[in-house]
Amino acid sequence: MTAATDQPLARYTVLDLTIARAGPAAVRLLADWGARVIRIEPPPGENEDGRSITGDRHGPDDQNLHRNKRSLSIDLKNPNGRRLFSELVGKADVVVENFRAHVKYRLGVDYETLKKINPRIILASISGFGQSGPYSSRAGVDQIVQGLSGLMSVTGHAGGGPVRAGIAVSDTAAGMFLGQGILLALLHREHTGIGQWVHTSMLESMISKMDFQAARYTVLGEVAEQQGNDHPTLVPMGTFRAKDGLVNIAASTGRMFADLCGALGAKSLLDDPRYASNRARVANKVELRRVINELTEQFTVHELVELLAPLGVPCGPIYNLGETFADHQVKHLQMTLPAHNPVHGDIELLRSPINLSACPHPERFHHAGPTAGQHNHEILAEFGYDSAAIEVLEKTRAIKK
Fold this sequence. Notes:
It is built from 19 helices and eleven strands.
């Protein structure tokens, strides 16, 4: 089964050489929107443990990263395997990799080499710290980049020491940005006819994600600090106590603050000069937080949400993942789609969060995450190799299932 031909990226062929998380996340964006993604992997058993941080090939993490992809197992150290890869590049649109720089050049997966084969090819690369510079040869993983980018310094409660964000945010951010870069390069090729090298790094992506905290430093020289669950510049916005737990409330404007005070029976706060503006509320946020907590803990979380949300005051519960997927709005959004896995049967995987009115989400993923070499014959036949040619590639161990 191939990708649906009515999807926006269905005419593009992508050779996916990526490992770990950032690169596969970028390719997943393309695969979910119809690109013909071929995951190029080494023969099964070769360096299998070192290639993946996602665990079992049929486990949830690997399946979620590699859904809608097919696998072709090529030994790029084998001359016949290298030749086969070059032939595929000649017919492909995009090659995506996240090797260290020296590995890329040793395997001939650098842009200068690839564009000699196919001037229209787009090479897309992710690294930990950039393709050049003093750290370019270092191995980069999410937590190291979280620390270097400044993210850990602003995460956690004041005085509590740096804290890692609970998700692989630098991996997934880099993947999102590289996916966007690939789409830009494809648009550029539409009117120039030539490909290019697109690259980003986990470090660049995370510094970009630091956004307003980074801008406060570059413009004003201010070094942002940990604020716990409070917003750094808007008050009141944070986590407050309810009868049965904690609730998030974001009364960040004057109108919202007035509505919050009215709903909680505390209109007298509006006459207090300490809370007359956001600047004043920031200066007195410790006392204001104490007062609001005394008010909110008279209500349950549900009561507060039902009271404040209709007023336009952002308010919501703090869920664990089980509660998230049980929520009525999350159920309405239908954030999962089934895929058939040969070991587990139909499994539910997260769908793309992008919604296109002209291209609705399919009813299911067309492929679950593949095993290494699972689609060798199918893919090579589509590229014009007959059974005899495929047999030669197998005998010379250029491919292996």
